[in-house]
Predict the structure of PalA.
Amino acid sequence: MINVTIWNEFVHEKIHDEVREVYPDGLHMALANGLGGEGFAIRTATLDQPEHGLSDEVLNSTDVLIWWGHMAHDRVSDEISQKVAQRVLDGMGLIVLHSGHFSKPFKALMGTSCDLKWREANEQEIIWCVNPSHPIAEGINGKIILEKEEMYGEFFDIPVPDELVFVSNFQGGEVFRSGCTFLRGSGKIFYFRPGHETYPTFYNPEILKVISNGVKWAYPARNVKPEFGFSEPVRSLGNVLV
Amino acid sequence: MINVTIWNEFVHEKIHDEVREVYPDGLHMALANGLGGEGFAIRTATLDQPEHGLSDEVLNSTDVLIWWGHMAHDRVSDEISQKVAQRVLDGMGLIVLHSGHFSKPFKALMGTSCDLKWREANEQEIIWCVNPSHPIAEGINGKIILEKEEMYGEFFDIPVPDELVFVSNFQGGEVFRSGCTFLRGSGKIFYFRPGHETYPTFYNPEILKVISNGVKWAYPARNVKPEFGFSEPVRSLGNVLV
Amino acid sequence: MINVTIWNEFVHEKIHDEVREVYPDGLHMALANGLGGEGFAIRTATLDQPEHGLSDEVLNSTDVLIWWGHMAHDRVSDEISQKVAQRVLDGMGLIVLHSGHFSKPFKALMGTSCDLKWREANEQEIIWCVNPSHPIAEGINGKIILEKEEMYGEFFDIPVPDELVFVSNFQGGEVFRSGCTFLRGSGKIFYFRPGHETYPTFYNPEILKVISNGVKWAYPARNVKPEFGFSEPVRSLGNVLV
Amino acid sequence: MINVTIWNEFVHEKIHDEVREVYPDGLHMALANGLGGEGFAIRTATLDQPEHGLSDEVLNSTDVLIWWGHMAHDRVSDEISQKVAQRVLDGMGLIVLHSGHFSKPFKALMGTSCDLKWREANEQEIIWCVNPSHPIAEGINGKIILEKEEMYGEFFDIPVPDELVFVSNFQGGEVFRSGCTFLRGSGKIFYFRPGHETYPTFYNPEILKVISNGVKWAYPARNVKPEFGFSEPVRSLGNVLV
């Protein structure tokens, strides 16, 4: 069983009526419900909890962490951010959603600004699969259409993804690398673009399917613990002085 | 003309006789002399200079920065490290040599531990080209043999390189991804493995050729300044409310 | 000086009035004129010439071949197609334009069907740069807008490109990986999507700039001739029996 | 259950005593036995069978094909080779072992010469994992040591692999990209270097583990059937004339 922790900053939902209408119990609860049928062991965590809900105990028992944040990235402590990034390097999977592109853990793991273009205009997004045999695209038939979403546009300042799975078309003319995977240390990261807080994106079955696929893909392989440091030769060095 | 700044921590050479014998004026001067015939405008900078020799003026007028450090990574200030990383994201090329894999700017740009296996045993390294049409391999005929070098072994905990140019074979049985390129922001990074301080590696013409090729490759293309932030639609949204 | 050969099947222009109106002397002549200011040594070749204009002498003295074909792919002989592909593996650069995705040499070098979605509907294409520091994007400011082009849509059945430089947005909702590089053998390949025969795309200065950049990028590095076959050990095998 | 077909040219074992001693029933039977505990549904096929044992019925009911060939590549018919390559593009997984690098289906899918350096000298090969979180490396602890193998050395003339999983060190000084994955069409390909016919490599539990991992990795995702050809707009083109 995969232990999934869904982290949501959970601020918009408390202070913006239009967001609360869409996600009355918070984005994290919509995700938890939406992923509930997959057999994952799901917990949630939010910014205002002690240690943002991400104690060592929680992090160490999490196989895959899902992250949504937007207006309160700065309120996530450096200490917890570093612990999250370190756990990824040690093998925990990480699914970063939408505005999580600017979260501290994601930026630290990418090493770049993670900046992009954006526009809130209720416009149509069409998410195309460019890697149909990838396990994250399993069950998706070519494309996903979202009638209203925020626009994110290129250039998206990330390292070249290890795998590009989805690319979005926006009505206003932009494109965006919407589904990107990255290996970092022993951990696997999947960035997935959609999910603005004012739209019901996280109730969409195809979006939930992709996130669920992402969780399964990012689930850490067992026995991954590379050795580092001083190392004896495998093969005799003969007359070489060590 | 390419403005190159060669940064060396310049500590070993002052306190270890065996290093000073090989590089009496410092590694940076050997590199400066070795690259002198390429027509670069070369400056050097070292740890003990004010701002480690990397003032805003120096950084802003540097096209490509070469970095060698080993025993004093921690003495490089966080402020200067961040400025270096930011300049790379803004377009400055970066050549990281050997033990610079553990330098603060490189680690920040990679987002991983950058750890590896190592051994000092005077053993032979053979550096093979696995990407013969890459400009960094220009003039190298298949392989470079170094009779004595420190061993670095896999797993090298870096992100998957954008391009793999060289792979090393060590006498004791290890392999290492020795020549790796990375795009980060608007900047290009080349990591090149050889160059332990007790060996005359930086007098080797083929090693100098690769570093020189790397400088030319990392030289920033002009007119690269991506736009970010709010963006008007390129194409009319029709009846969509913005 | 870079020796460029521009190959055009040159059939549409002879039999379709609307194409001849746009390219009265053939697409190849528009390209030759448009690239004329770059200092290349330019020749052209067409299907109906002996050996399709691609004799051994022409191929062997070509540094970079530009290829446009559409309705007569099958009329290109297997022999010449194989020679073109072999020359690429031996180091010649190749720029494949638009409907050249279905040409015999490109398909042989890719190993896939190279199929895609398409539509001729006079719709707007916006070509976005997703790799701003790439030399092929030099001088392009974020995007290129073509008011009317044929649509090509994903899934584009190519191997994962070594580098993705441009991605297109089409008015009807599709996206396409429009600028892709591939290394094959000692040769460099750049596929660039735009250029339907009924539109004046090859008079567009930005399109010509990208093609010109592509030629410079694909220009073969010197001294690339890998060795293959039986190989003596570099390092003594000691007591091992060879 | 994964339907695996193991194809072996099965010539060496019939005519070379030293090979028959190692693989008295053929390499394919050693592989079939070695993979038997994984729960795969395993069939074998060999060159001398009608249609080389690869009838349409067999190919169409094969999820993953394992291929070993060496001295009789030319005796595999073009027709069957093309069917194998097409089935890979249509989604069948393919595991190519050792000298299969020169097989017709692999070369057609790669588009390159697939040439390399080689030497038969009973020398030690150490296969290092450079991608420890990859599912194909699951259960492998850093490296695999084979006391005697044929040497394969770089440059290996393949396209840049989509993923590099293993790199080999040979006693004589060479390196080789030993574990490489490629996506082609809807199919997944894993090339794995070891397995010369005169050594008991295919009895080694770690080698069998990697091949078994490869089979599971290459098992085709369901529902992958991209659409191609003429395509109606997803989004209204408004006043644009179609």
